[in-house]
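Hi U.,

Before I forget, here's the chain from the pilot set. I'm dumping it here mostly so it's searchable later in email.
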Amino acid sequence: MHDAPIPAHPAVTLEEIADALPSFGKTLILTHVNPDGDCVGSAFALGDLIEAAGGKARVVTPTPLPKRLFFLAGNDETAEKTVLGEGEADGYDTILAVDVASPVQLGDFAPLIPRVRFMIDHHGLGTPFAPHCIDPKASAAGEIVSRLYALLRSRGTVPALPDAARRLYASIAADTGSFQFSNTAEETMRIAGALLSEINADAAETGRPDTAEICRALFGRHTIRELRAQMHAVEGLRFYEEGRLAAVLFTQQMLADWGLSEEDIANAVDTPRSVEGVLVGLSLRQQSGDPRAYKVSSRANADVDCAAVCAQFGGGGHVRAAGCTIAADTPEEALSIAAAAFGEAVRRWAEEHI
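Structure:
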């Protein structure tokens, strides 16, 4: 891990990144641990832009790329190359980070921080560790990379890149819950609309996936194991604060007993959040490497500040979607700690609005 103090770094504009992009050369693009649709889609799309401008790019993830997101890499072979071997980073001219808010999110990639040339992110709470282009108003990192794509096209630096557009559309759709979440703004829809036009025109001409197929790949396909995980999540629901806070917990023993993996429960937080009357839904996952560590994902249906709660435990994110890690000796203690912290935020919001 990167324990040394992180020096202050300047904010940079997309124009400055666009100016520098043709000089990136052989580029390594870093994502965060437990990669999601936004970081994967935006990182691979950024790689497309770099290669279209004459460079070479490779996306790597500090933890394995989920199989359900392999389609964003283009093929299984490319997806499997997201594992970075020891010493491989030495062969790259430029290192970038996408959708990474703070050093802890880089996991084993943290030692590369001094070499990161730019970071592109959309999280309001975080610790910038390189010259950064951060827009907390953007729905997704993909929204920012989409602006970069439009800028580079307007300059003639890159041509139309329909596959990059597909990845960017997927990243925005993923982080907005298919445009259902409150982070979906007018600008989000404008950018998504432009991407949709490009994608669907190309799909009509080439037969490649259109936006409907992209959303189906993200939201409309589930393995039997994922459905089994959802069933267990429903059975294990816990409610607090008069039903306004709901949580589900998975221990390593539960996963072993049920034949499930971390990937199978990646979207478990959607189950408690979807219950009528719930303001905040939580999922807690005991970590395989440390039985005292519980990864917490939080999703809110109101403006309960999940990011502020998660910041108490060294995490962060957005007001309505944030994560952190809680240390506890037992699963019940982890639930109690999470319920107390988020319960206070839920009560405070309810007192003011209900």
